[in-house]
Specification:
CATH topology of the largest domain: Rossmann fold
Distance between the termini: 40 Å
Order of helices and strands: EHHEEEHHHHHEHEHEHEEEHEHEEEEEH
Strand content: 15-25%
Structural class: alpha/beta
Largest sheet: 7 strands, mixed
CATH architecture of the largest domain: 3-Layer(aba) Sandwich
Shape: globular
CATH class of the largest domain: Alpha Beta
Number of helices: 13
Number of strands: 16
Helix content: 40-55%
Number of domains: 2
């Protein structure tokens, strides 16, 4: 395990203080048993008095460094730079960032307050365009403002913080339910391929697809996990292996290009991934490389499961071809961990996501149940 420390944009308590604060957070909500389930996993982010504290995922697995963000702009920068990533975690971070930003608004004029609030929301919305959880959480914060007519502005700020904290707590409970709903889909002793990072680091706690794996393991399923490295940002190699090691779950790291080989050799029984946005027809955007895995799984007759909260479903998007795909800095492709791997003048492309068509998805695991094709009727009902 890497060293834990804090660095920042400001100093923050480190070591056991993170754990004590987390226990208190759930004790306050009568959730001691909930903490027991997730306490061995890292705290992805939390509120600490006058700041949003974020575990810097760009430093993992070698160093545990917490960043203390004291302005909403610092939170937005952390999202954009992938210090924090994963659709649910991004949504929680945006909500906390909005609450933080509104504490700094100094006005008694409700109209001025609303205008500045919207400016903060826009700053969050512009960080990552694909993850719909980001926009879902922003809308929840807007609803708080809409319901606060007649309240003094000091109370509005308090209400925004309460809502952001509720989004964080709800996310963890939703993830635990996703795990419970999906665990039985993993055959006993199966070898499961996962992609990117869908664990505690990608959420407020516990995880989505990795949460399903953790739940199955906790129930006594002696499964094994193959972890795709997930180029170019190496979330699988850096983050998922780190989480699985902490949980004591057997795992093997492979390059993304090895998946077809292991399917052909019958060394994989299913694929289990997350999602950043799900269209109404069941098409799903997820980390680049997911579509390729779905094609390979279909070719080899291997179940391909997707695990995500219902907040990932976008009712405004009828099909995957309408999902905006973020294109990131090509340097993430030409460089690995800051070191160049291609000639300086080499052009590169770096779409962060691809879209898996619904026809390649065996089932979608959510906190409300497991949905199988055709998806549209069930997703519309949600």
């Amino acid at each position: 395990m890497g060293r834990r420390r804090t660095e920042s944009v400001g100093a923050v308590k480190s070591g056991s203080s993170h754990r004590r604060g987390f226990i208190k957070f759930f004790q306050d909500d009568n959730g001691e048993r909930l903490y027991d389930r997730i306490g061995r996993l890292p705290r992805t982010l939390y509120w600490d008095g006058d700041a949003v504290v974020i575990l810097d995922q760009t430093r993992l697995p070698h160093r545990e460094v917490y960043i203390r963000c004291k302005t909403y702009r610092q939170v937005a920068r952390a999202i954009r730079n992938m210090n924090i990533r994963g659709a649910p975690a991004i949504g929680v971070a945006a909500a906390l960032g909005i609450a933080l930003g509104c504490r700094g608004i100094r006005t008694k004029n409700p109209r001025v307050f609303r205008n500045r609030f919207e400016r903060i929301c826009q700053a969050m919305a512009q960080t990552r365009p694909t993850a719909v959880n980001l926009f879902w959480s922003i809308q929840r914060m807007r609803k708080v403002i809409d319901s606060c007519e007649g309240f003094i502005l000091r109370d509005v700020g308090s209400r925004l913080l309460v809502e952001a904290q509720n989004i964080l707590k709800e996310d963890i409970r939703i993830n635990l339910q996703i795990g419970a709903n999906g665990a039985e889909l993993i055959p006993r002793g199966a070898s499961v391929l996962t992609h990117c990072n869908t664990g505690s680091l990608a959420t407020a706690g516990y995880g989505t697809a990795l949460g399903v794996i953790c739940t199955a393991w906790e129930r006594g399923n002696p499964l094994k996990v193959m972890v795709g490295e997930t180029r170019p940002f190496l979330q699988g190699a850096r983050l998922t292996t780190w989480e699985l090691a902490r949980a004591g779950i057997p795992h093997t790291l492979i390059t993304d290009s090895m998946a077809g080989h292991f399917m052909q050799k019958d060394e994989l029984q299913l694929v289990l991934v997350g999602a950043d946005r799900i269209a109404l027809n069941g098409d799903a955007a997820n980390k680049i490389g997911t579509y390729t895995l779905s094609v390979l799984a279909r070719e080899h007759g291997i179940p391909f499961y997707l695990a995500a909260p219902t907040s990932t479903i976008d009712p405004a998007i009828p099909s995957g071809d309408r999902i905006p795909i973020e294109e990131r800095d090509p340097c993430e492709v030409t460089h690995i961990l800051g070191k160049t791997v291609a000639p300086r003048e080499t052009p590169a492309r770096n779409p962060a996501f691809d879209v898996t068509p619904a026809r390649n998805i065996t089932a979608i695991i959510t906190e409300r149940g497991v949905f199988r094709p055709p998806f549209e009727k069930a997703l519309r009902a949600i």
